[in-house]
Design goal:
The chain is of the alpha+beta class. Helices cover 21% and strands 26% of the residues. Strands 7, 8, 9, 10, 11, 12, 13, 14 and 15 form a 9-stranded mixed beta sheet that branches. The chain has a 4-stranded antiparallel beta sheet with strand order 3-2-5-6. A hairpin with a 2-residue loop joins strand 13 and strand 14 (212-213). Helix 1 (5-11) packs across helix 2. The radius of gyration is 22 Å and the shape is elongated. The protein starts with a strand and ends with a helix.
Length: 240
């Protein structure tokens, strides 16, 4: 693909266009091993090797970001009342068309995938291929064995929806554990626990999404780009 150097650096979230111009004049940008002083030069992203401060710039058509979602942010591209998860990204990283892949409730924490790859998101979220998701939970009341079996077998929610089987691992206190789902209805886990002994979720954190596992080095509200292996695993999960 033909592209200006400054646009390439901007798209790859390395530098803004004005920063690219200053970097080029300072000799910090090379094209095929030769210093390039003009950031407006057209390059071929498939054939030319562009380096910024000695590190090769790799162009990708889409962006894939792992976010450790904090409390109080909504899973949306815009909202008139509450801050959105996209507002946790710097302006230079937030591409047009980026969105959260799937939803977490406002007060649910943990792993979110942010991307601009609509085809991948559609495949990962399609009901026939809804990827596995694991959540760490704490609830108000102890979960009895009968409650656990009901959660695992599938149960009817207040609106009549019958949930698919889940997997529930209880910790020693029987008020916390890990639940694994293959679907993602609105407030589903909270509604499921409410349907067994009128229980209540008081803490919920997603720790996996398909092949992705939350990077424990990320603090709440922190993010990073996915590495090549993680992207490849997502593509495989989406059969792409």
């Amino acid at each position: 693909m033909k592209m200006r150097i400054d646009k390439l650096l901007s798209v790859c979230s390395i530098a803004t266009r004005s920063e690219s111009g200053r970097a080029a004049r300072a000799g910090r940008i090379t094209v095929n091993g030769v210093a390039e002083r003009n950031a407006a030069r057209q390059i071929d992203t498939e054939r030319d090797e562009v380096c910024f401060d000695g590190a090769r710039v790799i162009y990708r058509e889409h962006v894939y970001i792992m976010l450790n979602k904090p409390e109080g942010y909504v899973s949306a591209t815009e909202d008139g009342r509450d801050p959105t998860v996209l507002e946790l990204l710097p302006d230079e990283v937030r591409r047009a068309g980026m969105f959260p892949c799937g939803r977490l409730d406002k007060n649910t924490l943990g792993l979110m995938l942010l991307t601009d790859d609509g085809e991948l998101a559609h495949r990962l979220l399609a009901p026939k291929r809804h990827v596995e998701k694991r959540y760490r939970f704490v609830c108000r009341n102890e979960v009895s064995e009968a409650d656990r079996q009901a959660l695992e077998t599938g149960l009817q929610l207040a609106d009549g929806y019958m949930t698919k089987p889940a997997a529930v691992e209880l910790f020693d206190d029987r008020k916390s554990g890990i639940i694994t789902l293959h679907e993602g209805k609105y407030h589903q886990i909270k509604r499921m626990f409410g349907a067994v002994n009128d229980n209540r979720i008081i803490h919920l954190e997603r720790i996996t999404f398909g092949p992705l596992t939350l990077d424990e080095s990320l603090g709440r509200g922190e993010w990073r780009y996915l590495d090549d292996d993680e992207i490849a695993a997502l593509m495989a999960a989406g059969n792409l």
